[in-house]
């Protein structure tokens, strides 16, 4: 009886771990949806030494990339960014429109726990968020019990998208050497 109970508990834990992981939306589908099926050409933002320090400050660790890609139409830009939750990357799509988050969506979740961050009740907290002093969000984001590291990763990514969006705006305005 104990062996059967143990086996059932192990199966339940394995199933819930697999359920937590998943692709909720392919990045290409997110970009297509963001621009009503007619996405603009991909653009590149180079992470120069002018902004690398601030990017690393937002993330709280070294940023190894040399560039990041985004899609822009007017003041609306879509970013696909990744950050480690506890051990694995969380791929997130973030649309920034006129300096405010319009939408944040978890696209691919690879962690074993914390997948609740992909639900709209959580991600809608970011809608309309902007940056204030020291690259902080202008609002409090309520966490989710058991998903602390995933929540933290999405907060970092939202701050990063807003910062990079400001920089991309300056780059298009011809003042790319000015840090926002």
Low-pLDDT stretches are 4-19
- What Rg do the Cα atoms give? 18 Å
What is the count of distinct domains?
1
Could you give the count of β-strands? Answer: 8
Largest beta sheet: what is the strand line-up? 1-6-5-4-3-2
Instruction: Report, as a whole number of angstroms, the end-to-end distance.
Output: 64 Å
What percentage of residues falls in helices of 4 or more residues? 25-40%
Shape estimate: globular
Class based on secondary structure composition and strand pairing:
alpha+beta
Number of helices: 5
- Approximately what portion of the residues adopt beta-strand conformation? 25-35%
SSE order, as H and E?
A: HEHEHEEEEHEEH
Mean model confidence by pLDDT? 88
State the major sheet. Answer: 6 strands, antiparallel
Task: Describe this protein with a few key phrases.
180 residues, alpha+beta, six-stranded antiparallel sheet, two-stranded antiparallel ribbon, 8 strands, 37% helix
Account of the protein in words:
With 180 residues, the protein is α+β, with helices and mostly antiparallel strands. It has one domain. Helices cover 37% and strands 26% of the residues. The chain has helices spanning 2-20, 27-34, 49-59, 120-123, 148-172, and strands at residues 22-23, 42-46, 67-73, 76-84, 89-97, 100-109, 131-132, 136-137. The strands form 2 sheets. The chain has a 6-stranded antiparallel sheet with strand order 1-6-5-4-3-2, sandwiched between helices. The chain has a two-stranded antiparallel sheet with strand order 7-8. α3 (49-59) runs antiparallel to α5 (148-172). The longest helix has 25 residues, at 148-172. The protein is globular and about 45 Å long. 31% of the residues are buried.
